[in-house]
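Hello again,

I reread your note about wanting to compare the complex against the isolated chains. To keep things tidy I'm splitting this into two emails, and this first one only covers the full assembly. Below are the input lines as submitted, including protein chains and any nucleic acid or small-molecule components. They are followed by the predicted structure of everything together. The single-chain runs will come separately.
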Amino acid sequence: MSSSPTPDHLTPRTTVRRIASRGRYDRATIDAILDEALICHVGFVDDGHPFVIPTIHARDGDRMLLHGSNASRMLRCLAGGADACVTVTLLDGLVLARSAFHHSMNYRSVVILGKGEAVTDPAEKRAALDVLVERVIPGRSADARGPSQNELSATTVVSIPITEASAKVRTGPASDDEADYALDVWAGVIPLTMLAGEPQPDPQLPIGIAIPGYAACYRRPTGGR
Amino acid sequence: MSSSPTPDHLTPRTTVRRIASRGRYDRATIDAILDEALICHVGFVDDGHPFVIPTIHARDGDRMLLHGSNASRMLRCLAGGADACVTVTLLDGLVLARSAFHHSMNYRSVVILGKGEAVTDPAEKRAALDVLVERVIPGRSADARGPSQNELSATTVVSIPITEASAKVRTGPASDDEADYALDVWAGVIPLTMLAGEPQPDPQLPIGIAIPGYAACYRRPTGGR
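Full-complex prediction:
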């Protein structure tokens, strides 16, 4: 889309084809979307059928970290080196056009194609779980009790390299047909935001344990905007 | 999970296996999640590799409707009868436990497995596009200019039957290990909600066109809660 050198993580499979002008291939844009989003949707093929499972993720430099129970089919497939597609989507608004046809959404999404790899080294696995907690709730890993040996053993951690990835971004108002701008129809954007509400203390919490700052004022990083 | 008769849309492939107690198989729960969510993530296999693409959806009775450009690879695959997995996820909160291990999220998700089918009859296609606009922004289809013949021809509409589907739901505080309840660690839920902000009028909007009520007070249906 631009005359800049083709980044390594851009391949024909990850080049945005539909509405190519929305394609973004710089790692800063890709990373900001990955870091703001809390969940991804992981696609894999099992028994010949595609499955899509939502899960927490954390970007750790040039790789995505996923985790869960050893019993998870998704993690077993990925740890076994299956092909995967990890898609992250942030919804920013509804775009109301004069014509039904030009209605749209403002969004920022990333598609990563690759193969998973199990993180098995105990120290690396422990570090990866710390990263997962910290990316979701910065500050939390210092407070929570760390994983026991049994908990570590029961958990599968998988990494997927960010080597084949692209972002797609839509912003701004609708692009209506020229003739439609004269229509007596309201047009514009309804912005959408994921907001954190007031923390709800656990009913079994002893009296006197204050809500930590990271929970009281929870926000996602918004480097992408 | 209950002694109720097995619904037709529940199959071994859609039976929740990980944490089976979170499985929900009644259509009321499934439909409420599908109706509240604005987007789904569609999984399909192309050239042997899984892809996951986010897109708007609308439930129309016992089927999901998707639409887009004829040039969309995802829609071409689905219109050609490819196997698909449509996953819808609503994020409701971050669950902070005393142990890192028991941290979780509150969410409501639906997984639908099936094959797409193109909606080709012109009248049915027009009706499907009306449903899509109305599900995203109730009231809007009466105001916006309807699709022209060319716009209809340029659009692919695909339906996926809700015949093999299940929901997974997590609510409430963490389930910590008994010994951990004595720890001096705050625990609870940070609720998350998708909120609509103040509508941003299109810069080219003529003076005097008021913001319609459906945009000024935009909310998603929340039958699932």
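For quick reference: The longest strand of chain B covers residues 83-96.

B.
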